[in-house]
Amino acid sequence: MEAKMKLTARVEDYLEAILEIEMSGEIATVTHMAKNLGVTKATITAALKKLKADDLLEHERYGDVILTPSGRAKALAIYRRHEFLTDFFVRILGFSRDRAQSVACVMEHEIDEVTEMRLAAFTDSMTLAERNKETWLKELKEKLDSANALPTPLCLLPNGSSGVIARVTAQHELHKRLNAAGFVPGVEISEITRQEGQSGISFTFSMNGMGIKFGITEASSIWLYEPEAK
User: Fold this and answer.
1) I want to staple 151 with a disulfide (CB 3.0 to 4.6 A). Which of 40, 57, 113, 166 is the partner?
2) What average pLDDT does range 1-9 have in this prediction?
3) Dihedrals φ, ψ of 225, to 5°?
4) Start-end ranges of CATH 1.10.10.10 in the chain?
5) Other Cβ atoms within 10 Å of 207 Cβ, number
């Protein structure tokens, strides 16, 4: 018996293409798929042979391409993620539809069902908040529209730098310690200085008028926006 084929991103694209053709009311053929996917008929034929061996579709030479129940289920999962991600990027993040489609094409093959469900729940919550005209959603959208910079870890900033905490990426106990010490988004840090000694690399800086010294672990988990990018 031939070994089952692993569903690569390209293979999933073939399944999705067949489903989209079916949903348009037409019957998928090798010619139709080659045109839609921008590949040769020979490439499509070779892929269909492997997909047929995995019982994901039915196809006889020169005949129509028809998804099996298992093939349709897999194709639907990919198609649903593509459409959902596109909608998420357009409606929630404000991408152009072309850009949203491009990013969705990459991500649809990588996210799992749990990730998809959580993103869907988040999107539904945003939609409900928009319908209820909740003020926090307006503030969030204004923030998204004005986003123009990305943060940098404290440990990578040059001597004399200053910035505003964007996020703290430490985990578990370290995150709790930093949070309790006041390292939270919006707090200003200044006069960053990198020092190298026998005990390793350390960083000194000022926060709320106090001088603080951190090692590389703490300094790499504190991400800052430069003041002009706040």
Assistant:
1) 166
2) 60
3) -90, 140
4) 1-111
5) 17
Dihedral class, residue 66 (left if φ above 0, else alpha if ψ from -120 to 50, else beta): beta
Of all helices (H) and strands (E), which one includes residue 195?
strand 188-197
Q: What is the average pLDDT score of the chain?
A: 90
Q: What is the pTM of this model?
A: 0.71
Indicate if the pLDDT at residue 7 is higher than 80: no
Given 3.40.50.2300, 3.40.50.300, 1.10.10.10, 3.40.50.1000, which CATH number is that of 1-111?
A: 1.10.10.10
Residue 40 has pLDDT above 60, yes or no: yes
Q: Give the whole-angstrom CA distance, residue 104 versus residue 70.
A: 23
H helices of the chain, where? 9-23, 30-37, 41-53, 69-87, 97-107, 113-131, 135-146, 172-180, 216-221
Tokens matching residue 102: 């491009």
